[in-house]
Amino acid sequence: MKEKKNYYQTYQRYYFGEIALLIGWITNAVLFSRFYEEAIFYVDKRDKFIIQLLFMVNYYLDDLLKYLFVAFLLMTLNLFLILMFYIKNRQEVIKRKEMLYSIIVFLVLIGINVIALLTTIVWPLFLLLFIVSMTIVYIISVITKYLYEEKDERYEENEIVKVEGPFQTKEAAEEYVNEFLDHWTEYFVGKGYILISEMAFDDEYKWNVEIIVRSIK
Predict the structure, then answer these.
(1) Low pLDDT (below 70) residues in the chain
(2) Spatial CA neighbour of 7 closest among 181, 183, 195, 175
(3) Helix H segments across 60-95?
(4) Sign of CA dihedral 109, 112, 115, 120
């Protein structure tokens, strides 16, 4: 339980960021719904869809651009936050279940807002911006992955690459070690190193973990 609490404290800035974005989504949704209810009143429902869309664009272009920009900004920031949250978790390799649950919640919040906007007459405009937003974040993720994987890191013999703790129980420490080794062993082996773990029991009766790197002989 304490490890779970520590996890959320470690990543609390991401959760605060998501809360801020959620407030932005809600505010934008409320303001847009008021505008949309007024604008849609003057749209002839008997016209073809394309005619209705053109009517909205021609008569309410300035307002639409404002809401489109805000939705695009929120979408991009939301996806970027999820990307950074995922990368940070991969580097730390702790509490994968909490990471998975958090990402699912983040995506659900985005999905609800996106679906709400896509139920309007101007859904093609929102859809186009969402595609552009996802493309931008995807390009950033590819570049980040490339730079990260191509980074040529050198390690000294018996260099400590990770220190984690304290853990309340030996089992919790072993679980962390197993997760870390499962995730990083292949990466370090590819660079000619192996990982060794050491666990120590401190004066406060808690367990600490050190991950040490050694050259493959």
Answers:
(1) 1-7, 91-96, 147-153, 203-205, 217
(2) 175
(3) 61-92
(4) negative
Whether residue 175 sits in one domain with residue 92: no
Can you tell me the distance from the alpha carbon of 141 to that of 154, in angstroms, rounded to the nearest whole number?
A: 24
pLDDT digits (tens, 9 = 90+) for 42-64: 888 888 999 999 999 999 999 99
* pTM (two decimals): 0.70
Half-sphere exposure of 61 (CA within 13 A, CB side): 4
Distance CA 25, CA 23 (A): 5
101, containing H or E segment: helix 96-117
Residue 12 CA: distances (Å) to CA of 17, 82, 85, 91, 122: 8, 13, 10, 17, 36
Domain boundary (98, 121, 150) is at: 150
Segments in the chain forming alpha helices (H):
2-10, 12-40, 49-59, 61-92, 96-117, 123-150, 170-190
Q: Which domain holds residue 69?
A: 2-150
Is 14 found in the same domain as 121?
yes
Tokens of 182: 């499962």
- Total structural domains in the chain? 2
Cβ–Cβ under 8 Å, residues 141 and 195? no
CA 191 to chain CA centroid, Å, is 28
Cβ(40)–Cβ(27) under 8 Å?
no
Same-domain status, 49 and 146: yes
Query: Which of 126, 150, 174 is at the close of a domain?
Result: 150
